[in-house]
Amino acid sequence: MEKLLTCYTDSSAVFPSFPIIQHNCLASLNVFLSLFHSFTMLPHPPLLVAIQDPPSRRSVLPTFPGFMSFTPPPPGRPRVAIYVSRILNQHLSCSTVFHDSSEMLSVDVFSSEGLFRFPHRSLRVTSVYLLRTNCPPYRSIPPERIFSFLSYPHLVLGDFNLYHPLADPCRSLSEREFTIFTHYFHAAFDVPYHLLNTAGVYSGFPFDTISQPSVLDLAFANTALSSLVSSWDTPVPSTGSDHIPCVVTLKPPAIMLPPPTPHWALLDLDAIGKALDTFTTLPCPARPMPNSLSRWFDISSTRLTSLLTSHAPSKRLCPRSNPWWSPHLLSLRREYHKFARMSRLDPSPLNWSNVKSSRRTYFKAIASAKKTHWSDFWSSATPRSLWTAKRFAFGRPPQRFPDLQGASDPADVAEMLLDHFFASKPPPPALLHLTRHEDYTPLTSEEVSRALSKSSTISAPGPDHIPYSVWKSVHRIKPSLLPSLLDPLLAPGFHTPSLKKAHGIVLDKPGKPSYDSPSYFRGIVLLRTLSKILERVVAFRLSAQAVICSLIHPLQCRSLPGRSTADAALVLQHNVESFHRLRYKVSTLFLDVKGGFDNVESPSLLSLLRRKGVSPYLVQWVGSFL
User: Fold this and answer.
1) 356-411, pLDDT tens digit by residue?
2) Rounded CA separation 406/618 (Å)
3) Predicted confidence (pLDDT) per residue in 457-474, tens digit
4) Cα angle: 58, vertex 25, 208; to 5 degrees
5) Phi and psi for 422 in degrees, rounded to 5?
6) Would you call 57 helix, strand, or coil by DSSP?
């Protein structure tokens, strides 16, 4: 059962650090107050506080300024509680998750744009307090309920009342303690979850002088969260409890791996067709302003792209995943590691024999999967896939990182490359209102079909990761969808800022003696395919008016229908032969204007278009596009 706490979803606020504190308060109010007052000693205040055995009076938790408290529902005294910082609650959405137990509570943190710049939109933090029992598994909550498989990040922390050599390598374990922790840790490692505790760092110091320090407070992270864990530490001094507060800090990794991309070749077109039958764009504002029209388009396009992405499997789960991997290999690997753990704990001949047998089976299955995948690749090879085969055989060439003079870090390198590739321009005047022009002709599905027919299916997509082949399928299934999405932008001559966002790729020019200058690199800009479709529609309309309004030279052969490079070569050949017949010597001068488009003066171009009689909505769109 879930209970909604807040409806705020402002994922633009990115927390540079995400500290989470876990502590056993021994049902003492003094320990509770000492814990929360000690937060001033931390470099960053905690955003979540997971408490075991919290103090309560008539099942009501104590309050503390700046935090909201949540606990499992009655009956019974609450054994766990989670305090959520109001700062976190103001920027991200949170919800509690109950587990039908007073010793276990979870909080889900949600961001619509992903947490820590990761594609995962949710983070679950679970607080656990295991009490001792007299029947197996000898703790109050079975491990299968604690360590469940989740595709998004999951942090499990609390007072487990368990001893384990990984967390406390110096402790001598009894046979009963060995049996109990084996059941829980094997269940965690099989999912898998990873232990975050630093080996040998104690979190429990008994009040008596006879018992030795121990590690009963444990923290586990699943695979989706492991790369986000920065540290596990005990920086806070004693609060009067026999436990020391533990701090788990989450941060985005220094090297951000690209998110998994959809495998559009395996897109379920039948399911997409059924979903598109009921899909409609939101009503466009009757009197749109630039901000409201941009917001409408962003919401409508996001709904559409999310629908398409949800029906396409991931191409690669992560950059390190292999195309020959399969669920069968995953089960064999888990079995091999399970026997390996059992052998390390009990090095008997039977366990060692199981390790060797499972390892032999696992590696033979890997070799067979690689061979089968390579055979299938060659049997279905096409001329287009030969470059992929060459990359597999010879490897990728080494990447040359720009060694620019005066650049001390990657930010300086990026700034110098941007200054070199793109000339600085004054910002365009802000649009105060938008009006639908009288000479505007509504966008038709035939125009979109024509624009898509001129788009290559192998062109690299931009930030939306949706290629032209997907839009061709969408337009074939529902021809009215794309015109209804793009027509409200073209009618007032407005190009929304979200369509101007692009991915930039810097490529080195081969054969250069050194790479200490930006001129030895070239940039490729990948815009959203929706933006390119709209640009092609406008280009077709402009080319039709360009001939009528005498905007171009009669011998212009580029970017006009029915004229190509071959026509330009034939014109040049005709002129040369004509002068040769008159016994003239002919020389040809070819000019290449570097950065011509990037250095176009917008006011001059717009003034020229108006003087030539181009439709006002096209002039307005060109100004918005530039």
Assistant:
1) 999 999 999 999 999 998 888 888 777 777 777 777 777 666 666 667 777 777 77
2) 43
3) 878 888 888 899 999 999
4) 125
5) -125, 120
6) strand
Joined together, the tokens standing for residue 563 give 């004229």
Give CA–CA dist 112/120, Å, rounded. 9
Give the C-alpha separation, 446 to 582, whole Å: 49
**Residue 452 to residue 469: CA distance in whole angstroms:** 9
| Tokens matching residue 203 | 């979190």
- Given the structure tokens 């997509």, which residue do they identify? 461
Q: Please report which confidence band the pLDDT of residue 252 belongs to, taking 50, 70 and 90 as the band edges.
A: confident
Residue 466 CA to residue 315 CA, distance in Å, equals: 13
Tokens linked to 621: 């769109």
Q: pLDDT tens-digit profile of 137-161?
A: 888 899 999 999 898 899 999 999 9
Give the separation between CA 489 and CA 494, rounded to whole angstroms.
Answer: 5
Helix axes 327-345, 349-379, angle to 10 degrees: 160
Q: Give residue 139's identity as a one-letter amino acid code.
A: R
Cross-strand bridge partners of residue 154:
124
Beta bridge partners of 18: 250
**Residue 236: half-sphere exposure toward Cβ, Cα within 13 Å:** 31
| Phi, psi for 122 (deg, rounded to 5) | -130, 150
Strand partners, 281: none
Please report which confidence band the pLDDT of residue 9 belongs to, taking 50, 70 and 90 as the band edges. very low
Distance, in Å, from the CA atom of 23 to the CA atom of 37, rounded to the nearest integer, reads 14
Please choose, from the candidates 28, 5, 10, the residue with its C-alpha nearest in 3D space to the C-alpha of residue 82: 5
The distance from CA 202 to its chain's CA centroid, rounded to whole angstroms, is 36
Helix (H) or strand (E) holding 610: helix 602-612
pLDDT at 319 over 60: no
CB atoms within 10 A of CB 506: 18
The Cα 196–Cα 202 span in angstroms is 13
